[in-house]
Amino acid sequence: MALAGKRIIITGGAGVLGQGVASVAEQQGAEVFLLDVAAARSDLIGELHQVDLTDSASLTACLDAIGDFDVLANIAGGFDMGATVFATEDESWDAMFTINVTTLRRVLEVAVPRLLARGRGSIINVGALGALKGAANMGAYLASKSVVMRLTESLSEEVKAAGVNVNAVLPTIINTPRNRADMPDADAAAWVDPQDLAAVICFLGSDAAKAVHGALVPVTGLS
User: Fold this and answer.
1) How do residues 184-196 score in pLDDT, each as one tens digit?
2) Closest by alpha carbon to 205, among 154, 167, 160, 163?
């Protein structure tokens, strides 16, 4: 099993994609820990730790409780179409950067030194294929995901020689209940299945991907 004996932390672990990663990781032999603000549910795969991902002190206490880990999957994030660039209000801009960038930066702040101390580990972030270029009414979202992608590349250059792999997946639209509800006329069959995206994330967390550094991996389904 590709993740046998590994311990994986999944931010946003109670969400659809987070649970997809948890399911695949567990099937591959990993011990799964979920970081989320969501309330505990009996159907969750993995051990839930309720924590504010923007709070470094809370994250430190949380990772202290978990102990050593091998893989960090930064799934937490969000999407909003928003207004035009010139009409985007600070509240909308700040919301996209808080959920997509600040959460990532805080988790990395606490987690990376622990992986460096062990001399090994894997980090997988979630960018967006759409953030490779601009699009109308998506300026704040695409800007925030562009930052995630550049941080992924930069961090990889900083830690790869120390035995830590840092990569990101770039999905298109993920086939989730919310996306189906928001776009009822779209062909959801062409979207990315959460389990398929989870499989790519888990591959990047496995020893089979030890030579992969700073990659931005498109995961597009049939779209």
Assistant:
1) 999 999 999 999 9
2) 167
Contacts from 183-192 at CB under 8 Å and sequence distance 24+? 189/222, 190/221, 190/222, 190/223, 191/221, 191/222, 191/223, 192/219, 192/220, 192/221, 192/223
Cα–Cα dist 149/215, whole Å: 9
Closest to 152 (Cα-Cα) out of 76, 92, 213, 89: 213
User: What SS3 state is found at 63?
Assistant: helix
Backbone angles phi, psi at 120, to 5 degrees: -165, 165
pLDDT digit string (tens) for 85-99?
A: 999 999 999 999 999
Task: Give the pLDDT confidence score for residue 35 in this predicted structure.
Answer: 98
Domains located in the chain, CATH noted: 7-219 (3.40.50.720)
> Using CA atoms, how far apart are residues 191 and 207, in angstroms rounded to an integer?
28
Give the percent of the chain with pLDDT over 90. 94
For the beta carbon of residue 8, count every other beta carbon within 10 angstroms: 28
Query: pTM for the whole thing?
Result: 0.96
